[in-house]
Write a structure and sequence with these properties.
The chain is mainly beta. The protein has a single domain, classed as Porin (Beta Barrel), CATH 2.40.160. Helices cover 9% and strands 47% of the residues. The chain has a 14-stranded antiparallel beta barrel with strand order 1-2-3-4-5-6-7-8-9-10-11-12-13-14. The longest helix is centred in the N-terminal third of the chain and has 14 residues. The protein is globular.
Length: 346
């Protein structure tokens, strides 16, 4: 448990680093996992022995994940691709551990001078290596993740450290799950240009899921970005259908209600568990819907869906999240437990 103690000692230091500049390392909140994508972008309170969810909430790291291996890939927009590989295992002294590598590749870019002469090409990539640890205290599972972050944009690069802290509560039959998570407390060790340090994509989340005893439905409600409660909405001066004040000729500002402010923090999702080998998943992200839906056309922005199917020793998952008209992300995940490959002794 020494690792967990070191991580908690690390957190107060990085807490004071949440200031200055524009955001950096935004890819840390861009999860490639198909299940997270299908459930609207967050799955902090999903209890289903899935090691790939630990990257979203270290409080979901349990001893039952021992020797589980996960591969995840996201085909993003344009030439952007992202992935994650992780492995969970148990240790005698430290308890459950998980190591993983998250990356995002932004493709290749043409490099030109001021006269438009071609000087070759360059790439842009982000990487984050993490190690997670947890311990169970009665019905609570408390976990922490330490991350080493590296970003390179042509010859500009930046190095940082970050931490997640999560706590998950399950009732006796695990039908009700509650989680609270702090994601990406961070400190930028070196900046791209030697200037001011930049903000991390800091995120406080709370949520629960409820599985009904005699039917296959599990519902989840997640509240995200609680550190900015009531501050996620903004006036959009580019809306082409804004009402005009005839006396002044100025656009009338949108009237956000308490319900609007509250809903902008909420993600609704559901899973239909059809036995142990097939899951159907659906999600709705209200903030994504508000920001990306078109004014004069129907779109599916904010909605997501996916499924998981187990074939032999592998769980294959697919997730699709709609961002704007005609474009959705495609997420692919494969989970397996290496213990299932061991030969049983007679």
């Amino acid at each position: 448990m020494k690792l967990l103690k070191y991580i908690f000692l690390f957190v107060p230091i990085v807490t004071f680093a949440q200031r200055g500049g524009i955001g950096s390392f935004e890819f840390l909140n861009n999860y490639t996992n198909a299940r997270i994508a299908a459930l609207g972008g967050s799955a902090i309170a999903t209890s289903h022995n899935d090691a790939s969810l630990v990257i979203n909430n270290p409080g979901l790291l349990y001893a039952t994940l021992d020797k589980q291996l996960t591969f995840n890939y996201l085909k993003y927009f344009g030439d952007i691709g992202s992935g994650y590989v992780g492995y969970a295992f148990n240790t005698k002294k430290a308890g459950p551990l998980m190591i993983g590598l998250q990356y995002m590749n932004y493709g290749n870019f043409d490099k030109k001078d001021i006269d438009n002469n071609n000087l070759g090409s360059f790439a842009a990539n982000d990487f984050a290596f993490h190690i997670s640890n947890s311990r169970t205290i009665k019905k609570w599972n408390v976990g922490a993740t330490a991350k080493l972050v590296y970003s390179v944009l042509e010859y500009y690069n930046s190095v940082g450290i970050a931490a997640d802290i999560g706590a998950t509560y399950k009732n006796k039959d695990s039908l009700f799950v509650f989680s609270a998570v702090v994601n990406n407390l961070g400190y930028q060790i070196t900046t791209y240009t030697g200037g001011d340090r930049q903000l991390y994509p800091f995120n406080i989340q709370m949520g629960f899921s409820k599985k009904f005893a005699h039917n296959p439905l599990r519902i989840s409600i997640i509240a995200h970005n609680l550190q900015k409660f009531g501050n996620l909405l903004y006036q959009n001066s580019n809306k082409n259908n804004r009402n005009i004040d005839l006396s002044t000729g100025n656009a009338i500002e949108e009237d956000f209600t308490v319900l609007s402010y509250t809903m902008s923090h909420i993600i609704f999702s559901t899973e239909i568990l059809l036995g142990k080998k097939l899951n159907l998943r659906f999600g709705y992200n209200d903030l994504r819907r508000r920001e990306l839906a078109l004014i004069d056309a129907r779109t599916s922005a904010g909605f997501s869906w996916g499924f998981g199917i187990k074939v032999n020793k592998f769980m294959f998952s697919y997730g699709s999240a709609s961002f704007y008209s005609g474009n959705a992300t495609n997420h692919f995940s494969i989970n397996t437990n290496l213990q299932e490959f061991y030969k049983k002794k007679n």
